[in-house]
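User: Some background: our group keeps a shared notebook of sequences we're curious about, and every so often someone picks one and asks for a predicted structure to add to the entry. Today it's my turn. The entry only has the sequence so far, pasted here. Could you supply the structure so I can complete it?
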Amino acid sequence: MGAHRRVEYLPHWKITAAKNLAADFVAAGHPLALIGHSWGGDTVLRAAHSLTAPAFILGVDPVAKPVSRLTARDGRPAAAALVMHVDAVPGAYDRSDLVKAAGFIAGGGTPRAFRLADTRIDTALNHWNFTGMMRARGPDGLTAEDWLAVFPERLSQTAG
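Assistant: Of course. Here's the predicted structure to add to the notebook entry:
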């Protein structure tokens, strides 16, 4: 059996709560993975910019928020030991992909930290399909879920 992991969900507009929760995890000595889908990618980058300890940053089809166009240009957070970008580029578009397109126009596109990610998984899925994107295999044969399973060890190697 795998190790027990604490998982917390926060909506994309809870930026301060995300920063505080991330700081609490780090202060308690827990390895930290910040995962953001859609506008949540913007939120996890903001939280990561406030950290001093290494973290795994995962953007699942991330889109910069319209109210924060500058984050689309923000660089990699100093605490980012690993940045992963899972992108949805469907063959057949649906309403969720229109939401993503509107975010690109109003928010400035994919945040730069994710455009320059350490690893990227491109999928033929629609924007809404978070579970499918987490389970899609990258060029190395690994999924985002696989990376999450091993990230504590990778973070300890980075920190050590």
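Suggested note for the entry: The chain has a mean pLDDT of 87. The first strand starts at residue 32 and ends at 37.
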